[in-house]
Write a structure and sequence with these properties.
By secondary structure, the protein is of the alpha+beta class. The protein has 4 helices and 14 strands. Strands 7-6-8-13-14 form a 5-stranded antiparallel sheet. A hairpin with a 2-residue loop joins strand 13 and strand 14. The structure holds magnesium ion (2 copies). The site of one magnesium ion has 5 residues, from strand 4. Its EC number is 3.4.11.18.
Amino acid sequence: MRKAGQVVAEMHERIRAAVRPGVTTLELDAIGREVIDRRGARSNFLGYHGFPAVICASPNDVIVHGIPDDRVLHEGDIVSIDCGAVVAGYHGDAAFTTGVGAISAEAEKLILVTEQALAAGISQLVEGGRLSDVGHAVQTVAEGAGFSVVREYVGHGIGTAMHEPPDVPNHGAPGKGPKLRVGNVFAVEPMVNLGAPDTRTLADGWSVVTADGSWSAHAEHTIAVTDDGPEVFTLPR
Ligand code: MG
Ligand code: MG
């Protein structure tokens, strides 16, 4: 899983460096494909329930599952990139949100708070903790900053499949759910909206947008519970 995580980390690094005004989300997808092919990995996004690309690219009010296309990113936009890889049968899955050129202070804060919410969730992945401590920590950070967390889409266990039980919601009371044990691996992925938490799905059957049109950010890592605390597989080493 560490190897799969490192492929995802390189996809993130290269795609992040390529995000600028004038680039299309399809060009970002091609960068992801190049990394996967060069490293001899397999995409767990391509073909997933028929998904046509190796990344999800979700600009502005798109929360998750945006399909890469000829859409050009413009100065001031934000875009969430979600992607994964499989190495030797083990999966990695991670997402980030970044600005396109210079962005508003409000958009900067949305991205920063989403990253802080993810970090707060990750810090709960310690032996003996309870799974709902993760969502509680995420929700506390996001709502404490005046934003909302999406309810309909959640994090998940991950291993020999991309999505394994249990669900990892981004909200809820602490101290509930399964006890965390060394060796558990989860994908924690807050989706944070500037406005209300409600979502709707576009006619393409994939793109999930905010119901009120407000912008949304997404951040995700694949993390193991270890004897030394949480280990993030999808950060570059
Ligand atoms: Mg993901
Ligand atoms: Mg995921």
